[in-house]
Amino acid sequence: MGAWRIARRNALIRRIPSVETLGAVTVLCVDKTGTLTQNRMGIRELVPLCGESYSELLETSVMASETNPYDPMEIALINQAESDDIDVAMLQKRELLYEYPFSSEARMMGHIWSAGGEKVLAAKGSPENIFKLCNLSEDERTEAEAQQERLADMGCRVLAVAVNNSLEDIPSELTACSLKLVGLAAFIDPPREAVPSAVAACRSAGIRIAIVTGDNSVTAHRIAHEIGLGTAGEDEHQIITGDELESMDNKELADRIRHVTIFSRILPREKMRIIKAFKAAGEVVAMTGDGVNDAPALKYADIGIAMGERGTQVAREAADMVLLNDNFTTIVDTVRDGRRIYDNICKAMEYIIVIHIPIALSALAAPLLGLPTLLLPIHVALLEMIIDPTCSIVFERQPAEPDIMKRPPRPVDSSIITKDIFLKALLQGLVIFAAVFGAFCFTLQDEGPEHARTFFLASLVLSNLFLVYVNRSDTRSAFDGRRDKFDPVPWAINLAILAGLIIVSSIPALASMAKVKPLSLADFGATAAIAACATFWWEIIKFFKRKFAANGQ
C-alpha cells in the first residue's frame, strides 16, 4: 500500500524492500541536469573567437549537431539559428561523409560534410578537450579560457565550437584532427523552483547531497550555490574532478569523500567507485542515473534511482526505483514517505503487542484463578477481525510525524521493535489488562459470567479503538487533528467495529451465537469510561514530553 501511494507521487518502486531502505538513506548522489535543473536549455550567450563572426559560429554549431536532435542544447542551437535567418535545412542537406559520435570519455563530437568539393569538419564539445585540438596562440588561448571562466561563473554550461574547412583525410578518431576555434556557446539551465527547499529539507533530515555531474567544477559549484548546497567560498577539498579521482588511491578517496559535495567531469564508469567509497565509509547511498553505463552503479547503490523520462531501459531495469518525472523534489518526497511508512510499521507492531497482552493474560488468568472461561474461540476470531484491519489499514494511512524530516537517518540495521517501543507496549498492555480484567472480575460478582464476559469484550474493543488515536503519534495529542486532512477510511473502520459491537451485543439471537449478553446504555457508558481510563492516561505522558521538548530539555 505504501509503494502504491509513492507511485502516485511519480516514483515507481520496483523492489518493495526499498521502501524501508529509503528511511535510512544518508547520502543522495544526484546528477545536475534535469534532476536539480529544469532540463530546458536556453542559449545565454554566443561568443565568437579567433576572428570568427557570430553567423560563422552559429552555422558551425548547426553542422556539428544532429539533423534530428534530441539533446536540449542542440535543439536550442538550431532554434537560435532559425530565428537568426540561417538556412538550417540547406546546411543539413549536404552530404554527410563521416560522423564522430559523442562519447562520455572524449566529451565531444563532430560531423564531416561535403561542401563545394571540400571536406568540412564541424566539432563541438567540452572546451578543455576542444582547445587541445586547436592551434591557439598564447593570446587566443588566454582569451578563450577567460571567456570560458566568465560564462561558467554565470552558471552556464559551455561548449566550444571548432571547424576545419579543408580537411584532406578522414582520421578514424576526432582527437587526431586539427581544428580552428570558432567560439563558445553558453547555455543556461536554471534550477527547479522547489529544489532549494528540498535541499534544505534533506539537510535538516541529516542527508548529504553530492552532485555527480559531467559539467566542469565552476558551473557545478555555481548551481550548488544557487540551490543552497554550500557557499560560494568553499575550499578545493569540497570538489573532486574526474581527473583527480582517477589519480587517487582508495585511501585518499576515503579521506576526502567525507567532505565532498561536488564531483565534476565524472565519467559513468567512475560513478561506481564513488558509490563504493561512500558505502565503505558506512553511508547508505541513493544514486540517480539514466544511461546504460550507469546501470552497474545503480545496481550497487543501496537505492538505485533511474530517470523515467530520459533514462534508458537498461538503467530502469537495474534501478530499485524509477523517477517518473525526473525531479529531485520527488526523491525527497519519497524519502519522507519511506520514513513515514517505516514509522507506521513500527506503530502497527507496537499496537499488535499492546492489544495482545490483555488478550493473552486474560485467557491465562481466568482459569488460573478458577474463574469462568473468559475467551472462547469465537471471541478470539472476532477480536482478530478487529485487530487485522486496524494495524494494516488504519496505521498505514497515518500521516507523517511533524518532525519526520528533522530526525537523522535511522541506522540501517536498527530493529523495528526497539527497547523503548517494547517497554511502552508492555506498560500500555498491562494497564489495559488490569482495567478490563478488573472490570470482568467486578461485574462477575453481580451479573453472572455471560454479562461479565460481554462487559470485558466491550471494554477491550473500545480500548482497541481508543489506542489507535493515542498511539498514532508519539508526540502529538490524540485530540489534535488540526494538521490532518480528514481521512474517511479509519473513521469508517472504527464506526463499523463500534456498530458491530453494538449489534452483536444488542440483538438476542446474535448475542446467543457469540455467547454474550445484551448490554444496557449505562453498561456501554461504563465500558467507554473504563477503556478511556485504560488508554488515554498515556496522553499525560505525551503532554510532559512535549513540555520538556519545548523547554529544550
List keywords for this structure.
elongated, 553 residues, alpha/beta
Structure at a glance:
51% of the residues lie in helices and 14% in strands.
Write the layout of secondary structure elements.
Blueprint: H1 2-7, E1 11-13, H2 17-22, E2 27-30, E3 42-48, H3 54-63, H4 72-83, H5 88-92, E4 95-100, E5 108-115, E6 118-125, H6 127-133, H7 138-153, E7 157-167, E8 180-188, H8 195-204, E9 208-212, H9 217-226, E10 239-241, H10 242-247, H11 250-256, E11 262-264, H12 268-280, E12 285-289, H13 295-300, E13 303-307, H14 313-318, E14 321-323, H15 328-368, H16 377-394, H17 419-447, H18 449-471, H19 488-506, H20 508-513, H21 521-535, H22 538-550
Parallel strand pairs: 2-9, 2-12, 9-11, 10-11, 12-13, 13-14
Antiparallel strand pairs: 1-14, 3-8, 4-5, 5-6, 6-7, 7-8
Helix pairs in contact: 3-4, 8-15, 15-16, 15-17, 15-18, 16-18, 16-19, 17-18, 17-21, 18-19, 18-21
